[in-house]
Design brief:
Elements lengths: L3 E5 L4 H17 L2 E8 L19 H26 L3 E7 L3 H11 L4 E5 L5 H7 L2 H8 L4 E4 L1
Parallel strand pairs: 1-2, 1-4, 2-3, 4-5
Length: about 150
């Protein structure tokens, strides 16, 4: 059935729940996991909703801070997989659209399915904030398990 699951993380408490469930599913299926953290570009090319700006921090400082956050978030996947004795690899991906980075990594790693946590925002909050999970579901050809 599924032999390779992709588990995206943003380092949040909610993502930790998705990690736990994704690793448990992998163990039950005898599958391996790949963890991915999508980092936004340090130097945005235009002013749009994907741009993150911090006063007083250089692009190099921004990149270093977010790489540390990415490694910490991915370490949680590695620890969960190690405890469950599930083969695991982790990757940092740079992409201005997290959902596209997730799909590209799933394709690159030849994953069978994606296990992602979602905040489940609906209504005006979902409209204003957008939803990476909604975009992922709309564009993925792979099965996506959404954890809430």
């Amino acid at each position: 059935m599924y032999r390779h699951l992709l588990i995206p993380t943003d380092g949040s408490r909610l993502a930790a729940r998705g990690i736990r469930i994704g690793v448990r599913l992998a163990r039950a299926l005898g599958a391996r996991v790949s963890g991915v953290y999508v980092m936004l570009p340090a130097t945005p090319r235009a002013y749009d909703e994907t741009a993150i700006y911090y006063a007083g921090i250089s692009a190099r400082g921004w990149r270093h801070a977010f790489e540390q956050a990415a490694r910490k978030a991915l370490a949680r996947i590695e620890a969960e997989a190690r405890a469950a004795k599930v083969p695991c690899a982790t990757h940092i991906v740079h992409h201005p659209r997290p959902w596209r980075g997730i799909l590209a990594e799933a394709h690159r790693r030849k994953c069978d399915a994606i296990v992602v946590a979602s905040h489940g925002r609906a209504g005006l909050g979902g409209l204003l904030l957008g939803s990476e999970t909604t975009s992922l579901l709309a564009h993925s050809r792979l099965p996506v398990l959404v954890v809430r």
